[in-house]
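Teaching assistant's notes for section 4

Start the section by putting this record on the projector. Ask students to predict, before seeing the second block, whether Putative enoyl-CoA hydratase EchA13 will look compact or extended. Collect guesses on the board.
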Amino acid sequence: MSTELVLYDAADGIATISLNRPEVHNAQNMELLDQLDAAWSRAELDPQVRVIVLRANGKHFSAGHDIDRRTWDNQDRWLVSEVYEREAHRYVGYSLRWRNIPKPSIAAVQGVCIAGGLLLAWPCDLIVAADNARFSDPVVAMGIGGVEYHGHTWELGHRLAKEILFTGRAIDAQEALRAGMINKVVTRDELDSATRELAAQIAEKHPFALRAAKRAVNQTLDIQGFTAAVQAVFDIHQLGHAHAISETGQPVLMALTEMKGRAAQQKQ
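Reveal the predicted structure now:
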């Protein structure tokens, strides 16, 4: 039986999905992402569930994609087509699907939410952050122009998006709130209770009306070009991988140990 990297609970119209890899700060391997997608599907198909809450066990929401060096060293040869297919399915594909599930969703974020962590939080309709939350996408340092699901421009505005990408710096919960990326900041101790209180308030509404409201906002964003932009920028992202493979044989330019060192500094 596989390890439960994602936990699921449903009660009072609320499905709670918990990332459960705290020993590595909920870094995402393929198994975790597949289990997470299965949990989203379970919540989507349960007629008793009106609201979905995504949270994480441990100190941090998610340190992003798992960059354990053993994973990279065991790969004898990288093919651009294989990288493209894997990321199209599990990164952009999953994130867009979660975004469009016709039930309201809330992400509860504490600690770091780095790069791939944004692919989990941004598809949610609302984000509640603990006051110790920090959001970043430092992958330009790896020779890549940003993480696979390009919500940056929409979530942050183009000036702040460029600054964060160019510098790799993290923004804290208050700056994210001012940018409009998150809905509420609470203390770390209040995060779960505040998120559930918000979910309970939403769950009281008629599910068809909630579905219509979500569809209206998402379609408005799509008319403005959101989904087309995400898919187009994903191809730019893959060009970065192809460039790195041509130069180093690996899909990133930067030494993984250095990247992990920078990520570790952000977790402090």
